[in-house]
Amino acid sequence: MSIIAVPSPVPSASDDAESLRKALQVRHGRMVTTRVASAGWRADKGALTRILCRRTAAQRAAIRRAYAFLYREPLLNCFRYKLSRHCLLSLDFWKAMILWTMDPAERDANLVHEALKKKQRDETYYMSVLIEMLVRLVSSYRYEGDECVVDMDVVKMEASQLAEAIKKKKQPSGEDEVVRIVTTRSKSQLRATFQRYREDHGSDIAEDIDSHCIGQFGRMLKTAVWCLTSPEKHFAEVIRHSILGLGTYEDMLTRVIVSRAEIDMRHIREEYKIRYKTTVTRDVVGDTSFGYKGFLLALVGRED
User: Fold this and answer.
1) Can you tell me where the transmembrane regions are (predicted)?
2) How far is CA 166 from CA 53, 55, 152, 179, 195, in A?
3) Which of 16, 123, 267, 303 falls between 20 and 30 A from 218, CA-CA?
């Protein structure tokens, strides 16, 4: 459920591109006519936020095309140049602005690529099953049409199989029933299975995963369960983790807010408020600053 507040009437893509050009070429309130690549020129981050954070993905794509046509350079290249000349106060803003301006599929591909480039932790015992699970999650076909029928006999059987595998600490493998069920069943089928699990065994499957599945495999399994059936729980937890304590994990916070603003941010905010007795807005205000804070708040939306 998108919370992006698009103005009415919405400016044309060419008008927005021109406004962005002006916002990229200001210094101390004065617009300059030199090329944006001049190292001394700052940018009006508030104007950039007001324009792009109030446009849909399709509208942002149109703005990018218009900008490239009018000024013979990609808009993202301008943002990346600013990022490469960043000061510490602007780093997170420019990284967030680049991700937001990307096409959603382009953004997801970049995030996956960056995640896979990072060094793996030392939990090598589970690495083969983690790779297997990731591959199956991204390659399995899940029918999600309106006519998706839940097979209650399979629900009963697989709820029992999941309980046995999780509570008896069965060692995971590429052919493990847990991996097979979670990576192949439709979301409707999984929701019914997890509900039957709760009814038959008196606990939520995510709680049992926390209790009985150790290490990185357990964390990935819980994430998969939540993302497939109730993603707001996972993303509320990630936001909380990113801002809890003395520091802020800005990349993690940016990734969640940028990627979910047009999908289910309203549900995430509600889940966050119920679970943590505060709001996403209040915690973002308390842990971020300057243009980066304004950017995030624009995507989180107003909270009562």
Assistant:
1) none
2) 43, 44, 21, 11, 16
3) 267
Q: Phi/psi at 31 (nearest 5 deg)?
A: -80, 145
Which class in CATH covers the domain with range 13-27+41-117? mainly alpha
**90: its two tokens:** 């602007």
Tokens of 296: 């995030």
**CATH number, span 124-229:** 1.10.220.10
Alpha-carbon span 40 to 43, nearest angstrom = 10
pLDDT in tens, 6-57: 999 999 999 999 999 999 986 544 444 444 444 446 789 999 999 999 999 9
For residue range 85-129, what is the model confidence (pLDDT) as tens digits?
766 668 999 999 999 999 999 999 999 888 877 755 544 545 676
Euclidean distance between CA atoms 281 and 189, whole angstroms? 34
Segments making up each domain of the chain, as ranges: 13-27+41-117, 124-229
pLDDT in tens, 163-182: 988 877 555 444 578 888 99
| Residue of 168, 159, 145, 165 whose CA lies nearest to 190 | 159
Do the domains at 13-27+41-117 and 124-229 have one common CATH topology?
yes
Phi, psi dihedral angles at 241 (to 5 degrees) = -65, -35
Q: Which of 166, 167, 187 is nearest to 177 (CA)?
A: 166
Q: By C-alpha distance, which of 134, 133, 135, 211 is closest to 166?
A: 211
pTM of the model: 0.86
Nearest to 256 by CA among 233, 279, 275, 273: 233
Can you give the length of the chain in residues? 304
**Contact in structure between 269 and 240 (CB atoms under 8 Å):** no
Rounded to whole angstroms, how far apart are CA atoms 15 and 66? 9
Tokens standing for 35?
Answer: 């090329």
Structure tokens at 5: 């507040």
Omega before residue 9 within 30° of 0, cis:
yes
